[in-house]
Design goal:
Layout lengths: L2 H26 L4 H29 L2
Helix pairs in contact: 1-2
Length: about 60
Amino acid sequence: MNNLNEGKMILQEISEKKRKLVEVATEKGLHSSETILCSQELDELINAFYRCIRTGYELQNSR
């Protein structure tokens, strides 16, 4: 899969996880273990997106 398609997929996952985070935080509170776990999962997705961008940038500039 190319980086553009992978990046688009990750952005969709980030959007869904953000909605879930708001929902969980509203229902369970900001300090609940479920909210914290959801936040950590969102962080991982954001990091994956930036890795994808960096890899694509490096590939593009190596040509």
